[in-house]
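Q: I'm writing up a methods section and want to include an example of the input and output format. Could you take the sequence below and give the corresponding predicted structure tokens, formatted cleanly so I can copy it straight into the document?
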Amino acid sequence: MKLVIIEGVGKKDTIKKYLGNGFDVQATGGHFRDLQKRALSVDVDDNYKPKYVIANDKKEAVKKLKEKAEKAEAVYIATDPDREGEAIGWHLAYALGIKPVNAQRITFNEITKTAVNEALQNPKGIDIALVNAQQARRILDRLVGYKLSPVVSKKIKPKLSAGRVQSVTLKMVVLREREILNFVPQEYWDFGARLSKDKLDFLAAIKTDREGKKIVLSNKEQVDAIVADLDGAQYIVKEVKKSITKRHAPAPYTTSSMQQDALNKAGMNLKRCSMAAQDLYQGVKMGEEGMVALVTYIRTDSVRVSPEAQRLCKEYITNKFGAEYAPENFNYYKSKKSAQDAHEAIRPTHMEITPDKAALFLSPDQAKLYRLIYNRFLASQMSEATFNSVAVDIDGAGYGFRVNGKTPIFAGWLAAYGEFASDKKKKKDEDANDSDDKEDENQELPELIQGDHLKFIKLEFAQKFTKPPARYTEATLVKAMEENGIGRPATYNPTIQNITTRFYIERDGKSIKPTELGFKLVDFLQMYFADVMDIAFTAHMEEQLDEIAYEGREWVKVVDDFYKPFVGEIEKAMDGDDSAFKVVLEVTEIPCHKCGKMMVVRTGRFGKFFACPGFPACRNILPYEKAICKCPYCVAGEIFKRKSKRGKIFYGCSSYPNCDFVAWDEPTGELCDKCNKPIVKAKNGIQCPNCKS
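A: Here is the clean output for your methods example:
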């Protein structure tokens, strides 16, 4: 029996299906050997030698893997095809007593029968360069986190953490928020003339003044002057430019572009997108076919596609849409300079499994994401869309006006992707105040020729103000991280989730903004750890990790060059003044019913809560929520919504047990004039439950 060891348990059935008899497929369940918790586990005096241990909850699983490996005819290490997977494979080889150079390491970008069996035919040793790159990242992150977290916990607030990538990501959110807070709106005016020919009217936007200079209207006086100048004006077509324009298809998805579209076009946040993508990659049950993996590896920064996948896609396009929709030569896309390009773009593994067919077996999130991935890849390999475009310059009393129009000639890739491409999302993270970008290119225009005298209908103008850049969403923050070289595809989601769960940022609808704690943390780190907080410095560190992985750079030197100056910064920060950064606890007017002290607002893993400031002597806590009203029975207490052990809602006093007021209906805080009982909001309206009045 041959043993194949993978990472994720969810892939076992899919891979087993393709391997058949004679193979035993087992999973590590992800990481199983790592740096010790609650200890630095890095010997800074011995070339940063890491101290790895097997996690307690994985010891039994590793023991079983060792037993199976000893009996196996051959052992194949098939962890994920990225640096992290290579590192897990290296740890696995160590645990099984296999020399990395002698390991039979196999990788596949897609879980298909062809890909899995090809990988089995071409095993190789563990790539130590990739392992070293991942090890350097892990050690750097441990050094920063372990050394920095105690500093911020002492100087700002207890139990805080700071990290190499998460702190820079938080800085980007803080910088954006301050840009918004400091933004000063500027007045501007949209101005156009509604004109007509052959009973078809259209709006032409003003472009130039009487001297031919670009016109920018910034106040009502300028608008009034132009209105006066245009009184009784004749509008004459000066020039008509006709052309055929082409629109090329977008590239297939990378991790970040998939995450952005999942939010913008399918309403899925990062967590939901990541879960659905993982399921599609590792396999879903599809009726009698069993487990089928529907997409290629979902952590990639490359837009490269294999020739075989392009060939199969072209066949599908030709059969479904016609030969004219498939370009003569394959479409190729250029990956970004910072891309590792280790894997293909994200694409479907089976073109014959259309989104409609797959939807019968998928959850709503899986179906939405698969449709996006499938149609995006399909469109990326199709012909360009072509349009008849026209740009018309019009003169009105010496002022220049412009109107644009565009009509489709050939749909091309829009035949497959039109439902998404036509949904032009606004670039909320950009200040699109230039009216040039707001023209409607899809206006239906009459046939216009030079010299035409157009019928004037009316002038249209409106006062507007420039807007600040929008707050980041999860999608635009991922995009910013990618553009700035912060992190890598596998780290985007964990980084954002980290600063969210630690309450450094909070959500405002789909947008995210920094909390007061987030502001203070960034300001403190910026003062004492300028390099760690420098976006360019962090991006350069990613480049150095790439050099370790692909150019053989010595990882110890990279870590050492960072760590030595970092230690000096730690000492300065510990001795520095922290008065401006200390978080002062918010004191409430709610007395602790155990000791009488006024409760304070604290933050835990599940959010805010009220706590007694006498901790640890007094451990009393209350849920964080607004009081319904003052207690009608006692002076000190407030009424809060509560839930009984059986899950039924009731209302009780915060001064319990000193005050035993309780009600099943929401009290108003008032007492009945007749019987002195609490008045409540009942189903029949506000009433006294005792008097029924």
